[in-house]
Amino acid sequence: MAAINHISTKWMANMALESNNPSGHQLRMDAGPDDGGEGSGYRPKALMLSSLAGCSGLDVASLIKKMKLSVEDFHIETIGELTDEHPRYYHKVKIEYHFFGPELNEEKLQRAVDLSVEKYCGVMEMFRRFAELEIETVFHQK
């Protein structure tokens, strides 16, 4: 049987919306002042980039744990370029994985990134359907 996510999104006022999540948390979205909103929540398109980084980041965090790698910190920079014409969508996305620590195993960390990008991250696969992806891994040895 196929896995199904069911999200309910409610109009709050003006341009603000709120969605539930299977985790039980609520997520507020709103347009910016330039688009008639108040900026009181996440922008939906930018949230897509957070979903991409979150999906892949969870994979990488799990693999760091499984591989018993020494990493003090890591973060992901996700830069999306929108088309000029409406409907505007991301046609180019750069994803940078930054790892920090004094004893980084670069080969294994790169393997963790590659596994997420090529095999595990479903959001990455969805983005591949409409955007050109550029992946970069940066190691910050302390």
From TrEMBL:
It comes from Croceivirga thetidis. The lineage of its organism: Bacteria, Pseudomonadati, Bacteroidota, Flavobacteriia, Flavobacteriales. It holds the Pfam family OsmC. PANTHER family: PROTEIN YHFA. InterPro entries: KH_dom-like_a/b, OsmC/Ohr_fam, OsmC/Ohrsf. This is OsmC family protein. SUPFAM superfamilies: OsmC-like.
